[in-house]
Amino acid sequence: MKLQHYIGGLEGLEPSSFEKRVFVQPWEQRIFGIHVAMMALSNHLEAVKNVPTTFKSFWTWGHLRTGAEGLNPFDYFKYRYYEKWLGGISGFFVDSGYVSKEELDAKTTEYLENLEAPLPAGGEPAIDEQVIEYLRVGDSPKCEVDVQPKFKVGDVVTVKNPPPVAHCKLPGYLRTKQGVVDEVYEGAYNYYFPTGDGVGDPMPIYNVKFNSHEIWDNLTEPNTEIYVQIFEAYLEDPA
Q1: Cβ-proximal residues to 64 (8 Å cutoff; 6+ apart), any chain
Q2: Using CB atoms within 10 A of its CB, is residue 130 exposed (0-12), middle (13-18) or buried (19+)?
């Protein structure tokens, strides 16, 4: 995982923002809605086959995170949360051919010159119904396959140190650290797409307990533990 996405325990950083509002600016609600609609209309969903949509792509939370993780670290820290979403989604639409960069720039200029301009109207009831249904049922990563867990509750495990890839589900501060399996979740879980570091196919997920001193030395209070849910591909037996 690239440094800018898991900075837990690093010293000398500026104070964190504790903004409690989910949406600070009105446009943030819209970009959230666009992302949800994209997930609800993703081409991997069976229900979408009967929905009249021109969106024909594969889109999940993983794709959104890949866009954010691809940002230059300086840009990552410069932009706010939903600005990162906006950049990633805009880049996806341009790269996928839904809109050209020139068209996007022209439309952006048009709205910046008239902030009170009305937004496009219209809509398709079948699309609205699919988005609402997606919000209701979700898209579970749990798979109906028989995969036996490699570890059991109480086992001591070491977190691997896989090479950096475009998208990673392993918190950076856990690399090479040792913990104890606290819970083995029932069943197997896949990820939306292969990440290149072992995650993708159905596998067990564990809740692993770590002593905070094992991770951050004596910078934390004594007898403090943290729990992290981790894919099996990121764990191995202690050396």
Answers
A1: 35, 85, 88, 89
A2: buried
Taking Cα atoms as reference points, which of 98, 22, 28, 20 lies closest to residue 56? 98
- Containing domain of residue 169, as a range? 143-236
Residue 61 token pair: 């939370």
**Nearest-10 crossing angle of helices 81-95, 26-40:** 50
Whole-angstrom distance, CA of residue 99 vs CA of residue 137: 30
pTM (2 d.p.)? 0.82
Nearest to 96 by CA among 44, 46, 58: 58
Q: Are residues 173 and 132 in the same domain?
A: no
Task: State whether 165 and 147 are in the same domain.
Answer: yes
Pairing of strands 225-231, 188-189: unpaired
Residues in the chain: 239
Nearest CA to 65 out of 6, 136, 149, 138 is that of 6
Please state the domain count of the chain.
Answer: 2
Splitting the chain (239 residues) into consecutive groups of 10 residues, what average pLDDT does each group show? 56 68 91 96 94 95 85 82 91 95 95 88 91 92 90 97 82 91 95 89 96 86 92 93
CATH code of the domain in which 231 resides: 2.30.30.50
Q: What is the dihedral of CA 48, 51, 54, 56, to 10 degrees?
A: 10
Strands 188-189 and 205-211: unpaired
Q: Where are the alpha helices (DSSP H) in 13-165?
A: 26-40, 61-69, 73-78, 81-95, 101-113, 125-137
Q: 70, 166 in Cβ contact below 8 A? A: yes
